[in-house]
Structure to design on (681 residues):
């Protein structure tokens, strides 16, 4: 496996790109003066709140909607100057638009990826068939090839579309929210699959997502979008450390926890302070429960002390002389409420 | 692939059934001509002159018209359903039949108004005005399709054009005398028997041209199943494909309607039957399946409309709906194919 090399020329590059819409002859700018780059083998996650322009940016880079200003270069030539067919050989996309392919087999959908390569009637050559088979193998759907798409789960449907994009055999793949509507195991599965593909095939992959924690773990680079803010790019960890992440997503109701890389809701606080003794997994989860209830966790002498007895797997709450033993966190919370 | 083999046998079976229905359609009628006699006449032997005349000038052209009409309407419906991603779409959603109706209504009623109007009795006149009417609507729809970026808006605009034409026809009817209105109504019932060899020589090439365009669009139609944007990203020039689909549909449905009157229902129903029975949305299969099933269904409807024992011929437009609607309801209840195809 070769990591994306800083010396390889980018497969996609934007130059003073301005994206947005024309409405009644008036330009409605979403983002302007964008300078972005993607190199082969790189996985880029595009994240940002709803309405920050993730889809607009992708559609503009793909040439599905005109840029208000500036250029996107794919393989050293502007998107504007390329035909649909040329674009289809450079860039494949997985979109969330409604489809009517339920009555096609997985194989038939994936074979549509060969559209820009085969003849007028879509006849599949030996080479086409080999590429389709390889694509199905990469997304682990080879055994499902003859199944109808309508019979597949949402995760399998998404993998079918990714296989279609792979069959298109392009150096660049863009996916618009590929993990939307999927449950957690499927979301992780798709992200892992895409990350593996970027590494193994040296394809450049751009995807938009709302899965911040997954994006932080899987992306080589993150493009952070926000309304009325210039786009921020960088390695996920840098964006976390310099506070960009929190600035973009933080709000009155929650903030970003630098220690855990997750978002923490703000809870209405109570005036009661608690000191948790001990240092185990159990105490970490107890602290989470207490924070949710709004108690103040402290290392100073507090209203309550709670300690964990690892061998008996019980908790002891003590207030001065009074001691109560609990076996579950739920019991503790009930006890504290009294 | 087992489905492939199964479909091949299914197709062969349908072709045989269609041939059978064609022969029956030629034999049956108010005058019965036996099979022996038909073969003898076709072989060129001397037979009853009236039977020869009936066969050559009525039965065979009518059965051929049923084939052309069935295939053309089914193909138009198939393309419209794919383009609009709508299971209710049919050949007439773009207002083609209403346009043709408007043309015919204007012709018939103007003919009655100016009593000296020589064309009034001519069936060619009706055909001509039906073509003008549907072509007019078609040009408007094409013009709009070049400006509108999504197909759903186009669908609504097509329906609006249809409503306007329908309203104009109602107004014309309101101010016409009953006799004139009646002759317009007769046209709306639909009829296959009015099509002579002369008319077939226009109908057949037009429908053939439309069907040829469809055939060349099969790969793009498959791509459209992915949705228009997704189709764009695999290299389909969606606007161009949409234009060709409209042209091909207007050619087929427009000409057929002009010659036979508006034949409802078949164009909507056959594509569903084809997808269900052949278990696929792949246009490589559904194009051929729609052609053969459209032919077969139209022949069966024609057979029913003139069943032996009936004193007169039923209007074909009623038969297609009376016979076809229960078939479609049965298919939809039996399988969940429509949902699989369109969601």
């Amino acid at each position: 496996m070769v990591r994306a090399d800083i010396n390889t020329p980018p497969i996609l590059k934007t130059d003073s790109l301005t994206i947005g819409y024309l409405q009644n002859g008036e330009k409605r700018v979403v983002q302007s003066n964008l300078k972005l780059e993607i190199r082969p083998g790189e996985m880029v996650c595009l994240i940002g709140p709803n309405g920050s322009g993730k889809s607009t940016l992708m559609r503009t880079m793909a040439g599905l909607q005109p840029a208000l200003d500036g250029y996107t270069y794919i393989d050293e030539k502007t998107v504007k100057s390329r035909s649909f067919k040329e674009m289809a050989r450079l860039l494949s996309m997985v979109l969330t638009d409604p489809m009517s392919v339920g009555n096609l087999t997985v194989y038939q959908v994936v074979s549509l990826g060969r559209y820009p390569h085969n003849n007028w009637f879509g006849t599949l050559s030996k080479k086409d068939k080999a590429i389709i088979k390889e694509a199905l193998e990469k997304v682990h759907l080879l055994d499902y090839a003859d199944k109808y798409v309508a019979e597949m789960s949402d995760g399998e449907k998404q993998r079918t579309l990714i296989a279609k994009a792979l069959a298109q055999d392009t150096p660049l793949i863009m996916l618009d929210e590929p993990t939307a509507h999927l449950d957690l195991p499927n979301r992780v599965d798709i992200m892992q699959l895409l990350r593996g593909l970027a590494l193994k095939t040296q394809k450049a992959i751009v995807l938009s997502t709302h899965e911040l924690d997954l994006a932080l773990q899987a992306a080589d680079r993150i493009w952070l979008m926000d309304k009325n803010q210039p786009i921020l790019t960088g390695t996920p960890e840098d964006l976390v450390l310099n506070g960009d992440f929190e600035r973009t997503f933080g709000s009155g109701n929650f903030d970003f926890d630098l220690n855990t890389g997750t978002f923490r809701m703000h809870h209405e606080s109570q005036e009661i302070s608690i000191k948790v003794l001990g240092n185990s997994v159990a105490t970490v989860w107890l602290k989470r429960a207490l924070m949710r209830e709004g108690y103040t966790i402290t290392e100073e002498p507090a209203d309550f002390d709670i300690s964990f007895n690892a061998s008996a797997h019980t908790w002891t709450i003590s207030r001065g002389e009074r001691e109560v033993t609990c076996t579950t966190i739920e019991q503790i919370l009930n006890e504290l409420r009294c | 692939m087992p489905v492939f083999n199964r479909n091949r046998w299914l197709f062969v079976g349908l072709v045989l059934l269609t041939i059978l229905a064609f022969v029956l359609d030629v034999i049956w009628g108010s005058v019965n001509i036996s099979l022996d006699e038909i073969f003898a006449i076709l072989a060129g032997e001397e037979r009853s002159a009236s039977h020869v005349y009936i066969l050559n000038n009525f039965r065979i052209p009518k059965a051929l018209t049923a084939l052309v009409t069935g295939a053309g309407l089914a193909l138009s419906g198939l393309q419209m359903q794919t383009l609009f991603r709508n299971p209710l779409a049919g050949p007439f959603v773009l207002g083609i039949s209403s346009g043709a109706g408007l043309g015919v209504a204007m012709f018939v009623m103007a003919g009655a108004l100016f009593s000296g109007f020589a064309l009034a009795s001519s069936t060619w006149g009706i055909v001509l005005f039906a073509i003008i009417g549907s072509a007019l609507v078609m040009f408007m729809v094409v013009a709009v399709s070049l400006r509108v970026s999504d197909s759903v808006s186009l669908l609504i605009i097509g329906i609006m054009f249809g409503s306007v034409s329908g309203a104009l026809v109602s107004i014309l009817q309101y101010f016409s005398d009953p006799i004139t209105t009646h002759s317009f109504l007769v046209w709306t019932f639909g009829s296959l028997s009015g099509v002579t060899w002369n008319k077939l020589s226009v109908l057949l090439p037009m429908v053939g041209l439309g069907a040829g365009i469809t055939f060349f669009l099969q790969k793009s139609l498959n791509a459209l199943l992915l949705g228009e944007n997704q189709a764009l990203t695999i290299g389909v020039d969606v606007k161009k494909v949409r234009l060709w689909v409209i042209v091909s549909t207007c050619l087929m449905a427009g000409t057929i309607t002009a010659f036979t009157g508006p034949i409802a229902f078949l164009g909507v129903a056959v594509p569903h039957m084809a997808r269900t029975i052949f278990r696929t949305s792949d246009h490589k299969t559904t194009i051929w399946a729609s052609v053969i099933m459209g032919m077969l269904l139209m022949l069966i409807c024609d057979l029913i409309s003139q069943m032996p024992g009936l004193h007169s011929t039923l209007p074909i437009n009623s038969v297609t709906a009376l016979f076809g609607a229960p078939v479609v309801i049965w298919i939809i209840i039996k399988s969940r194919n429509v949902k699989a195809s369109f969601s």
